[in-house]
Structures are given as C-alpha cells and as structure tokens.
C-alpha cells in the first residue's frame, strides 16, 4: 500500500520527467542554440562575397573557418546537429530588404562531429586544439547519454509498476539526477566552445551573437530532471523508513 503523499510525489516526478525529456529532445533537434545578427547587404562587392560564401555553404564544405565565416555574415544559427543561414528566397541579394528571407540548413554528419578543431580555424598546420575538440564532442554526446539514462529509468519504472514495487525508485531518482547533470554539462560545454571559437575567430564588425531558444530549452530541462530526481529519492527513502517502522511495530 502506497501512502497518498508518496503517490503524489511519484506522479509529479513523472510529469517533470516527461516535460524535461520533451524539452531536451526538441533542443537537440533544433538549430537555434546560438544565432548571429549580421548587417544588411551593401554594394555589389558585398553581394558577390555573400553569394560566394553561400555557394560554399550549400556545397557542404565542412572547413570550420569557411562555415563559421558564412554563419557570421549571413545571420546564421547553429545547434548541436545543424547549421543554418538566412538567405533571400529568390536569390536577389541586392534587394535583401524587399524579398522574403528563408533559412537554409545543413546538418553535421557523425564523422564531422568527430573532426578535430585547430588552434587557427582553417589552418590544419596550426595543431589540434584539444580543448575545443573535446568540448565539441561532449556537447553532442552528453545529451544523448542524458536521453539514454531517462529511457532506461522509464523502462525500470515500467517494470516496477508491473511488479507493484517501490524498491527501484531510489535508483530511478539517481538516473534522473545523472541525466540532469549531463544536460547541464552539455550547455556548459556548448557555451565554453562558442566562447573559445570567438576568441580564435573574431566576429566581423557590426555582427552580434546571442543565445537561442533551443539552448534555453536544454537549460530548463536540467533542473526539471533534478527536481524529478529529488521527489523520487524522497519518496523512496520516506516509504522505506515508513515500511520499516510499520514492520517493527507489527513485530512488537
């Protein structure tokens, strides 16, 4: 028999876990982790340069300096798996203010996620930047680990429900805590990686960068997982103590 307080805590923890998982899944699948605001197109020379950058971007060139410069100059957005630029729908670069702008995206392939970063972007002779390389790899591996922990916790909870047992609840809470920490580490790795990129690859004049809503979704999911973990751990420990007290009372 489960006390109403513990049942309520378990239901709230389940809702928080579902919300956190949905937020994290949306954050992983969208590209608005960081976005750049670029100045308007000015002059034919500027139009030719932007068109050339866009053509290289569409060609799928993964050179870090090339695609970073394109993101800087074309109001780019970048996520864990996507990089996008804002371009005129009909290709009229000289009339940017009069035409509809559309978002063109290219995904990072799995091999590209493991591509080393260099101390000078685009210069393979400058030596590998180990810190940026591993921050990049962690920022896409950690959220997958977080989702995996939540899925495993959900399967364990489902089995516990079938067995009508609260015994695994403590372990499920620990899994949610680890998932929340992994998500928080993802955000930290991403922010640190972007800061280091901007140090070695300076932003052009009048180009500003800002955090996107996808990153905030991931940031929100972390405390939600942790709150779910706290409720699960409290319910498990409190129910265990209550069970032992009842057992001792009956024996006495």
TrEMBL record:
The keyword Transmembrane applies. The chain crosses the membrane at residues 7-28, 140-163, 170-193, 213-236. It is a multi-pass membrane protein. Its main location: membrane. It is found in: Membrane. Keywords: Membrane, Transmembrane, Transmembrane helix. It comes from the Eukaryota. GO terms for cellular component: membrane. This is Claudin domain containing 1a. It comes from Monopterus albus (Swamp eel).
